Amino acid sequence: MVTYDRTHHGHRMVVHAPRPGAFDPAAFGRDVAGQAMLGLDVETRPLPDTGPGHFGPAAGLRLVQVATPTIGWVLDPADPAQRATAVDLLADPARRFVTHTNFDVLAIWSAFGIALGQRVIDTHLLSKLVNPDERAGHGLKTLTARHLDDGLVVAEQVLHARMQALAPATHRAGGRWKTWGWANLPTDDPAYVVYAGLDAIYVRRLLPVLMKACAPFSHLVHLEQWLAAQSTGITIRGLALDQPYTRRLLDQTETTHHHADQVIRTTVGCAATSPAFATWLDSHQVPGPRTATGRLQVSADTLAALARDLDTGRLTLPTDVRAMLTARRHVAATSNTIANLRSFLTAADTAGRLHPQINTLRARTGRMSITNPALQTLKKTDPRLRHCLRADPGHTLISCDFSQVEVRVTAALSRDRALTRVLLDGADIHDATSRLLFGPGFTKAQRTLAKRATFGTIYGGGIGALMNATGATQQVAADVVNRWRAAYPGVAAYSRHMATVPVVVTGSGRRIPADPDRPYANANYAVQSTARDLLVAAVYELATHHGLHEALWLFVHDEVILHVPTTRAEDVRRLLETTMTTTFRGIPITADAEILGTHWGTLPPTTGDAP
Question: What global pTM score does this model have?
Fold first, then answer.
């Protein structure tokens, strides 16, 4: 058996790397015996940035590493004896592991079919609890260098140098040597083995350091690790993609995109996305914001603002210019749809299932995101993309989301009397706000201003944000914002106070450092984070008290989607709505649940399943 000895800043670490046929199970057993928690890491073949990832043909496990704080074992699954030992250890329900992100957990499932579930604690999540700012650096190398020593950084540098030295000349440009190295470096290469073993040792050493830092809010550790396990379960189970519908919609959208682009090419003489199109608009006196070089900005926001001004009669343009702006909007809208549809088809595994990565602590407020593909960007207002995802045969999708939860949480946190009274009376918040701002005879346009002002204030926006959202003039926007603050003085006072605190501490104990450049966002941090924790609390009750953990299908912002047998759909719908309906500091938190049916997005009845 080959052994490597490394000492960094006085801490001695040993890495055992048995060759095939030379594995000593007894020695391994002695090292891991009595260890309540083992570091776990894996080395895989490189996974493409797009595609099914761990669930596709490119997936493959090269090494499995387990470790104590001082001893690491690098096991080769190609050797039957080492593979059997790894499988027995990982499948043992009494064993606990610490990893960094759920990459290793998914790789273990892909290779062995072993679900580690809640037997894993994730140091990446612990680091995000300590400091939720993405810019703080939460990579394993960064964290170990910050809290322990530079041993892992040095090992990575040695490994990269080795990859560059061994890569064929055709693979040395750019970062191609790294991709080549992860796929082809021999599994017994000393630099590769030492790096692999130290990864497992260092993640095990890092655990107590981060746990100590989490002591003031240790109750969140259990909840976040539980949520991460549920999210990994969703990834493993996957979501069924309606591939025939998705392909039809892609074909139709690509046709629409091509036609709009051809209209612009024929009239203007350039592609829709060419800078020459902005020059053509300039030559026709189309107003709008400018780039640093003075050219008209042709962005989605600019196009939307121009369309709004044309529809309201605030702007008049020749018919041919209006036609070009319409065509350009079609190009922009279809480009996004096409990108989404292609990502769905690319990410699907051979069984036609997507395995999205749910990032449970992505934003500093704790709000979740979804990647590969980015499902949280699919809007309810355009159900065509959501309709691509469907329930399994015999099952039904049920959705529930909070109703105006940010407004309700704002009332609870600020103790604003007027806002509280509106909510307790059960009135429509936007109608009530419009009456406070403009009187009982408010117009539809004024209601839109009131609604935008409400959410803009909660989200930390101001006059400029209201102008961008509604197209209002600066004078009108300033007047509306001032009226809003006068109508809800408690909210305004709460926002001013929150802007002065260096760290936002939520009711759940979550700590969110203020952004020095955006202190006005602190109130929004508190509101958004609290709303997120209310959602997680409801999900926890559904899963642990009502046994619906395997029914969890997806979390999207303030929405929970469950996947249940059709025969139970109505019973689960009532349970879901009841569970998510609660109170927070005396303010009712209401929720609306609906049976979606066979697909996530419900198309208008006249279209059926056709795109």
Answer: 0.92
